Please model this.
Amino acid sequence: MTAGEHIGRSLEEHLRRAAFGDRPSIEERTLAAAARADPRSRWLAAVVLGAQGRYAAAATLLGELVLRNPPLVGALACATFAAHRRQLGGHAAALSLDGAALLRIAEQEATGERDPDGVDPDGARVDALLGLAADNLALGRPGVARRLLDLVDRTGPGWRGQIRAGWVRAEVELISGDAAAAVSPAESAARLATARSAVRHGVKSDLVLAAALAATGEPDARERASALVAHAGDTAERHGLRSLTWPAGLIAADLEPANADRHRAQVTDELYAVLLAADPAGRRLARESAWVPS
Model:
């Protein structure tokens, strides 16, 4: 292995641990190096930047990757761009990007390649299908979301896909009015995230589980939900995961009426910082969204 190959592998390992693993905090110089590296490293850097709520910086990387790379990286970039639009409330905009991701990965010849984090054709297909399920759910089509989840199962998702499928399944049940049925897939997602030492996925899983528990209306469940949200919010804040700090604050405000004003003030501060770091299209989507508080 040449020195350049060794440096490249070391960089990708750092980026994977930040994007999917136990080290979501990452040095700026590592992100800067990734922006000048190979397409896969640039995509991983965009995933990390999005988790930090730095959507404009992520969009700069993703825009080029969407246009100029082979089917696998192009599909992953489309699905990630869609996730960032969805996080800003732009579900209709995300829908077209997730559709593009599915079309791009259809161009990829089957290789049998399997990546431990789903950075492979099947993983990209699962990312696109789950994104489409989440988009359709937010746009009021839970039946379509359920059918897309069935396609995910038939594809055979890896650990990332299994966790994300748990989130979407829980959200489908919540929107369908069956909070009790939402708890099990959310619990499964949280357990798997813990087993994989996936910090960012664990924070999101805890928030989804907290929302499901709270919706049951059971006092013990609400108490557990409050503890989960407090821990998730602290973890997100500690690691600079601004894509998750403000959703944590919104759930906390619902669970703690006595402290709701304080939580909402923190949400306002977090969202202000996120929108300052978003690209113009992202800010417009957030302003127009019913999902993002004004």
